[in-house]
């Protein structure tokens, strides 16, 4: 993947949030709260839990279907960040070699189970977070956080991060292109040059920050970024929240997968 | 109405690194005038513009904007009177959506929700960009960004409009629409630019800056047709005067 492709990929996540579906229309606050609860519930499971995590995939799958988010795009996004989770969990099978089950003559150690559990939790939490942004838009999430009581300073930082991420990437892209154009296939003088390029990028950023601050002052900035209220909690939001909370509670405290399995055994 | 004036009296400015950018600038712009400021690179145009709304304070001399003398205390008031449009719209559009950005100024003026919405609609309507309001600035074209940047300033309803290269980086058609737009504004306008044809089109008066002082001040048509003088100041005749064979 080249730098350009990566850049336009981020733009795509952003563009997904312009759609108009039931999920997109929900109040951002409802979605933020639902996502947070979802994350905490998933994380709260003990480290050898695999089976009870399975029903939780219902949430991302439903959000994705109703929100018309392309599945392959989400899976690609999850794979891109998966090395972090893999590195965290990869040593578990080596360190935790206690055998817990023997399946077809292959002994399964507890380490593999906890590794699998980590991967599942990772896939669940990342997809929930990505879906929140893909269905709410980043500014939407920020305004929701502000109205849920997060300090103004943090929210302003997040908003600036979002706004200037794209500008900064374009700036970096210009520098990288200029280097590639004159390095004729070699790596452009290597590490030393790279460090210098970073320095230039930093200086340009500082300059830009100053110009932006000037622009803000020119329009009466006094330390807080004021915003207008634009959404109201509707009945559908409360409904959505209560369904999510009920499901999370049931999935967390009742062994649902086991129940379904027993039921199936009895039937056949 | 005499209070929409901008007056520079013996304004000197030295940057912290010792560079003398302004060395005694004098001019007076009265209500409703549109004035072009031209000069070579590094002549002091941007520095001068940054003085008009008090981002920089003069080292010595006085600046009078709408009957207020510019000091550290009055600059907040002065910023309400003077709207500045920057050369690079990316520096100016700092909010995540166009609507938020145009609403930023009016909200800071402490207006209530209803009137903020009205102002935003009016300002975006003025630059024909109403359909852009929910878009994030990074998905706009350069022409759209410039239009929105102008709307963001107009939403504050300033008495005086100052612009730094309003048509730089624009394709000919977008440039033309910016020029048409500028002509419809009845404000006092101060436009710093290298685009001499734009100045000729929009401004009746022209101030030439060179080496930190005013080297010429008079009717734009007269100054911008004086080839000898323009070339002495690293400028040239506007293209419309050049007459191709």
Q: What does this entry look like structurally?
A:
Chain A is mostly helical. Chain A has two domains: 1-138 and 232-260, no CATH class; 151-227, no CATH class. Chain A is 73% helix and 3% strand. Chain A contains twelve helices and two strands, in the order H-H-H-H-H-H-E-E-H-H-H-H-H-H. A two-stranded antiparallel sheet of chain A has the order 1-2. Chain B is α/β, with parallel strands linked by helices and 245 residues long. Chain B has a domain at 6-90 and 161-235: 3-Layer(aba) Sandwich (Rossmann fold), CATH 3.40.50. Chain B is 37% helix and 24% strand. Chain B is built from eleven helices and ten strands. Chain B has a six-stranded mixed β-sheet with strand order 6-7-8-3-9-10, with helices on both faces. In chain B, strands 2-1-4-5 form a four-stranded antiparallel β-sheet, with helices on one face. In chain B, helix 4 (98-108) runs parallel beside helix 6. The longest helix of chain B is centred in the middle third of the chain and has 14 residues, at 113-126. Chain B is globular and about 50 Å long. The N and C termini of chain B lie far apart (47 Å). The mean pLDDT of chain B is 87. Chains A and B meet through helix 1, helix 8, helix 9 and helix 10 of A and helix 2, helix 3, helix 4 and helix 5 of B.
Layout of SSEs?
The complex is a heterodimer of chains A (268) and B (245).
Chain A: H1 3-16, H2 22-25, H3 28-43, H4 58-66, H5 71-89, H6 92-95, E1 99-103, E2 106-109, H7 110-136, H8 138-147, H9 152-183, H10 190-218, H11 235-253, H12 256-267
Antiparallel strand pairs in A: 1-2
Helix pairs in contact in A: 1-7, 1-9, 3-7, 3-11, 4-7, 5-7, 7-8, 8-9
Chain B: E1 6-14, E2 20-29, E3 34-39, H1 45-52, E4 60-65, E5 68-69, H2 75-81, E6 82-85, H3 89-92, H4 98-108, H5 113-126, H6 142-154, E7 160-164, H7 172-184, E8 188-192, H8 196-202, E9 205-210, E10 213-219, H9 220-223, H10 227-232, H11 239-242
Parallel strand pairs in B: 3-8, 3-9, 6-7, 7-8
Antiparallel strand pairs in B: 1-2, 1-4, 4-5, 9-10
Helix pairs in contact in B: 4-5, 4-6, 5-6
